[in-house]
Sequence to fold (471 residues):
Amino acid sequence: MKLLLLAVCFAPLAAFAAPTSVLRAGAAAVDITPTEFPMNMPGGFSANPASKAHDAFHARALVLDDGKTTLAMVVVDVLGAGPDVLNEAKAIAAEKTGMKPDKMLISSTHTHSGPSVNTRSEMAARYYKRFVEGIAESIIKAHAALQPALVGAAAHPLPDEVFNRRWYLKPGKMPLNPFGRLDAVKMNPGTDPNTIDHPAGPTDPDITILSVQDARRKPIAVYANYSLHYVGGAPEGEMSSDYFGEFARVMPSRVRGGENFVAMMSNGTSGDINNIPFGVTRPPREPFEQIRIVAQKAADTAWLAHRKIEKHRGDVALGMIQREITLKYRRPTEQDVAAAKAVLAVKDKEAAEKLPRLAKNYAGSVVSAAERKEDTVTVPLQAIRIGDFVVCGIPFETFVEIGLDLKKRSPFPQTMVVGLANGRHGYLPTLEQHKLGGYETWLGTNQVQEDTSVILTNNLLEMMAELKKAE
Fold:
């Protein structure tokens, strides 16, 4: 009788006990804000020195471990870091944690008002060290914070803030490109309805999230993804982590995250997507206002996605595949090189002003491409499985059509595609978009063989199928 009473008394406690979890997770954010100025902000065709940072820059890491596989997903506030830089950070973190470098995905947010990671001066070299060590430290701290965890994934649309930036123009409105030729489409054509006709491609409206909770269902992290380039709107001379950093700041309030909660927004397939509503005149904004608007709407949308998650689970398997893909560099023709050298030979100021816009910049790119000693480049592709959720990492500024295609053909119910992952190798248009021309397809902006999107997509589909088969 006593045993029966004990069973009845403790039954409610068992019903509310934390679910069994085989998964562990840890998250950490490390401040990597520049402290020495002036520092150049890369991303344009001329020097753009900053005298201060308006807001903080971070390396944000999420580490997951199911007892067989330990992996890291890191988002860094920077325009784009090369594979050599990121591999250095991975090596430091691997030595301290025992993790494998090929089980780490590190992506750049692509803020255009971020610091440079070159080492051409003593001050820049000091920041480079802070940058690399900060990324490594975020992984090390997240690994040290591993605890029993539950995960869930979902997506919700935010179509209002994504616009395809490649447009067909009305007859007679297309200017010459830097090579003296006419493209079929133009990037950032302005908002004049007398000039623009219709966009050359779609958008991906979804904000996809991976939500991580501890065994008591308290939030540990939210890893989000949106196919939006960057917002901009920072005044001259000020650095900003853009909407990516502001999202990370406001997201904790949406899910009641505590002091150690980490939110991060990764850049999706935004190679042809930005925040300019072409055909519409937006009211003027004060500095950073549009960044705040987009970040707040993104946080609200991530919260709506979070509400769609029926159940966070701890009994999920992890898997991660990395493939090294060798691609051919694009080579200019002899005629292209001769034309480029002729442009570079123009010294008269008046004659130079008559050249197409950016003609000298791209003439230099053509000559550099012709003189490049290497014929190929090897880039990493990654696919990560977290239960029924999969993440693809591509080291390019990837066109949205590629991300939409991968999501449509994925064998998993939820798919996220992260751009600028583990490196930055220029733009990645589709074959169809290559035929239309435009900024993202020009030699110098795009560096690798024109069918690269097909090669990478096919590899990622094979990698996802392999991860699916392992369940």
